[in-house]
């Protein structure tokens, strides 16, 4: 009788799903659902953090003068608001357009371009010459900076971008400092140069002995006369 009762109870209970060898229960299903929700939440947080990192890529902004060389035409430098971002140089007419990244008048891809100094310290000329590859060949463009500090920032930026490296590269600061150190070496010293009143020169340190004997003989002869 007891055995028959156990059989009847087991028959009335819901049986687990044995299809494909998978055994599941309502409790296990709830746990799996909770784990899935947690994984989705964590993955979403990672994506958002990555997106925030992308929007915080270093960017250089300044007001500079620009000239694009054209054959048989003489153009003057014009002021634009510059920004360097993702190896591209963008030029805007106004500061507001630069801030909102609206309607750039120039979009220059710096990767692979030739970057040459266009500097004359005595004339206070701090320029950068860019030769940018294009369908017509190499296009020459010139950037004019206000002083050596502004020049160092943009020259270092252009040199790195030409090599495919952004402002986030660790060598940007050292490249900028190298340029500033070069200007310091070219600048004349501010302090007066010390000039000695008399020189203490010993002939024995510079002339061979036989010449010293002849020289001393001539001196003694003149003294006797």
From TrEMBL:
<dbReference type="GO" id="GO:0007229">
    <property type="term" value="P:integrin-mediated signaling pathway"/>
</dbReference>
<dbReference type="InterPro" id="IPR001849">
    <property type="entry name" value="PH_domain"/>
</dbReference>
<dbReference type="InterPro" id="IPR011993">
    <property type="entry name" value="PH-like_dom_sf"/>
</dbReference>
<dbReference type="GO" id="GO:0005178">
    <property type="term" value="F:integrin binding"/>
</dbReference>
<dbReference type="GO" id="GO:0030055">
    <property type="term" value="C:cell-substrate junction"/>
</dbReference>
<protein>
    <submittedName>
        <fullName>Unc-112-related protein-like</fullName>
    </submittedName>
</protein>
<feature type="domain" description="PH">
    <location>
        <begin position="65"/>
        <end position="163"/>
    </location>
</feature>
<dbReference type="Pfam" id="PF00169">
    <property type="entry name" value="PH"/>
</dbReference>
<dbReference type="InterPro" id="IPR037843">
    <property type="entry name" value="Kindlin/fermitin"/>
</dbReference>
<dbReference type="GO" id="GO:0007160">
    <property type="term" value="P:cell-matrix adhesion"/>
</dbReference>
């Amino acid at each position: 009788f007891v055995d028959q009762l156990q059989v009847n109870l087991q028959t009335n209970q819901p049986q687990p799903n044995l299809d494909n060898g998978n055994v599941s229960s309502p409790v296990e299903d709830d746990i799996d659902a909770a784990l899935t929700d947690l994984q989705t939440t964590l993955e979403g947080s990672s994506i958002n953090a990555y997106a925030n990192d992308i929007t915080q890529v270093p960017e250089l902004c300044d007001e500079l003068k620009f000239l694009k060389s054209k054959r048989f035409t003489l153009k003057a430098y014009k002021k634009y608001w510059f920004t360097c971002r993702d190896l591209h140089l963008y030029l805007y007419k106004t500061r507001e357009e630069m801030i909102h990244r609206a309607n750039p008048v120039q979009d220059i891809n710096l990767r692979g371009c030739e970057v040459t100094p266009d500097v004359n310290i005595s004339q206070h000329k701090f320029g950068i010459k860019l030769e940018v590859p294009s369908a017509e060949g190499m296009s020459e463009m010139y950037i004019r900076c206000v002083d050596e500090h502004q020049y160092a920032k943009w020259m270092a930026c252009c040199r790195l971008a030409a090599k495919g490296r952004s402002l986030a590269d660790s060598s940007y600061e050292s490249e900028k400092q190298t340029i500033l150190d070069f200007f310091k070496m070219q600048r004349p010293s501010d302090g007066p140069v010390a000039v000695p009143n008399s020189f203490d020169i010993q002939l024995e340190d510079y002339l061979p002995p036989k010449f010293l004997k002849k020289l001393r003989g001539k001196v003694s002869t003149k003294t006797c006369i």
